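Morning!

This is the sequence you dropped in the shared folder:
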Amino acid sequence: MRHVPASIAAIALLAACGAAGDESNAATPKTDDKPFVTTVMADFDSPWAMTFLPDGRILVTEKDGRMLLVSADAKSRAPLDGIPAVDSAGQGALMDVVLHPKFAENRLVYFSFSEKGTGGKGVALARGVLVDGAKPALDKVTVIFRGTPYVDGDGHYSGRIAFAPDGHLFFTNGERQKFDPAQDPKATLGKVLRLNDDGTPAAGNPLTAKGFHPAVWSYGHRNLLGIAFDAQGNLWEQEMGPRHGDELNLILPGRNYGYPIVSNGDHYDGRPIPDHDTRPDLEAPKLFWNPAISPAGLMIYSGALFPAWQNSAFIGAMNAPGLVRVQLDGTNARKADQWDMDGQRIREVEQGPDGAVWLLEDGNRGSQGRLLRLTPKG
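The structure's back. Tokens below.
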């Protein structure tokens, strides 16, 4: 969730997106000799996401609805008051958390969560003002956007947040395991959304004139669990495929990414889904994984601590446990490394202020929920 010049971002987002290359399904190389040292910094209860404050402290969300303010050395923590009620059944959670680009001035924190509402359950986007002190809190918390419609079920909320270089807010809505909403122009489900920082649909979104919900930027997505801008202003997104076929996509305005019409995976009941190459009119992923890695979290590295990793995308893997590195080259991508992280499911990846890579383990299915810091060997 780094910020780059808006002029570069606009050019990159409008660039043409080609079909996935021949190496899309190539296995990610497994690197046995890790080039980093892993330090366990803390342990949490099913953590979901994190973000760093300017002073090095960390905000960490936990599945059941807690947001913690953690010291820079991770040795102390305090829960924040002011968090709304969270429906954490199934895949529900207190999910992503990011800072407003002008946080130093306005102290605004944005976060997403699953909740009950009219018609069932859905994902909400909220913001509040961080108040420090002996009892830290989020003050003036307001829900500024809700994915629609609310439906039954506990899956595929997505809820990832990223600020664009020009200040617009991008928000992901999963298709809630309902398939068809990803192609429904009136629903926000199965979409990447572009909003103003107050949660209203941004002007100039590419599909409004075609009858789509005015917030929609791209559509035909499944369960979008990572979104980030690279240094050139390209917007990248990763999502879980159905049964295999996990994707890394370059997100371009107005494009249809095909789900559930096409996928490089199949339905869980064994029914086949046509592959992306059968529909060249629909946007293909830059990379896909078959078998699945169950991607969660997306960070594009820009630090100096690991200079060889500049402009690499890092993805947490929850199915084939580990950390995946993808090398980006303009609007192209290639699989680079995958490291087994002691069999743990990695839920979140972030870059620390000093360029270290920080991970959150998922805390489910035997994973421990630890906060890990990766630094170079030697």
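Headline: The radius of gyration is 19 Å.

More detail when I'm at my desk.
O.
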